[in-house]
Amino acid sequence: MMGQHPNPSVPGFAVLISLGAFGASEVLRLGQLHFTRLAAAAGADGVEVREELLRDATTELPQLATELAARRLQSVYSCPTGLWREDGELDELALRSALTATRLLGADRLKMSIGGFGPASVPSWPRLAAALQAPPGEPAPALLIENDQTPEAGTLPALQAFFATAQARGLPLAMTFDMGNWHWVGECPLTAAQALGARVGYVHCKGVLREPSRWVAVPLAQSQAPWRTVLNQLPADVPWAIEYPLQGPDLTAIEAELALLRQEARRLHEARADCLPALI
């Protein structure tokens, strides 16, 4: 599905808003349908629906699906449960539940982390592949693996090992690259972007600020990290999502954040086009 405000100079690019960016307490109070409408009014191309912020999935997901289809918005379904449990066993119940919700939403992407993936997880690959097969006549949502904020599922070595295994098993899964989460696990996002950029199918844009005892997410303009340098290593022809705090229903402020990301994607697209060798 195409968004309302596509960036015509960057094919494949779109700017989404992760609905958690509006604040968990407010989203739980007012519902994700309310903030989907707010995101659309600000000109977002789509939204990321958060499973943990659904008050009643049975009623909310069909309502969201109707709204998204009517507004021709893109959508991603985000499940906070890891694909593998702590003992290395595939969490088939969580995966199949998330896939069902993704299809009900009408989303073409499902975002999860690898959880407790490890050597004990190898026998479960055939079951993962089977679960990802769509029912006859239905499209298969793309599973996007996110770097989370845990050592088990959010560090570069853990993710490189996972993607290498996935490739060898014939499941070349794409990645949700969260620019900010690397700081929570003490790693460099630029190094990660250079190593994993080719696998990225979706980007979480997030600024970070260091407080005395923790990292916090902030708008890109307030970030202590070189976010433009990181984006330089990532695809500009995939969806990018705002995953930092958007406070209040100020459409002008939200529009400015969306415009910033569109501008950056266009800059990258043009810079890379200039670097292409001339066709002879």
Bulk shape? globular
Q: How many domains comprise the coordinates?
A: 1
**Tally of DSSP helical segments:** 11
Strand order of the largest sheet: 1-2-3-4-5-6-7-10
Note the run of SSEs as H and E: EHHEHEHEHEHHEHHEEEHEH
Might you state the CATH topology name? TIM Barrel
Please identify, by name, the CATH architecture.
Alpha-Beta Barrel
Instruction: Report the average pLDDT across residues.
Output: 93
Model regions low in confidence, pLDDT < 50 over at least 5 residues: none
> What does the radius of gyration come to?
18 Å
CA-CA gap between termini: 36 Å
In words, what does this structure look like?
The chain contains 11 helices and 10 strands. The relative contact order is 0.14. Strands 1-2-3-4-5-6-7-10 form an 8-stranded parallel barrel. A two-stranded antiparallel sheet has the order 8-9. The protein has a single domain (14-275), classed as Divalent-metal-dependent TIM barrel enzymes (TIM Barrel, Alpha-Beta Barrel), CATH 3.20.20.150. Helix 4 (92-105) links the parallel strand 3 (74-78) and strand 4. It is α/β, with parallel strands linked by helices.
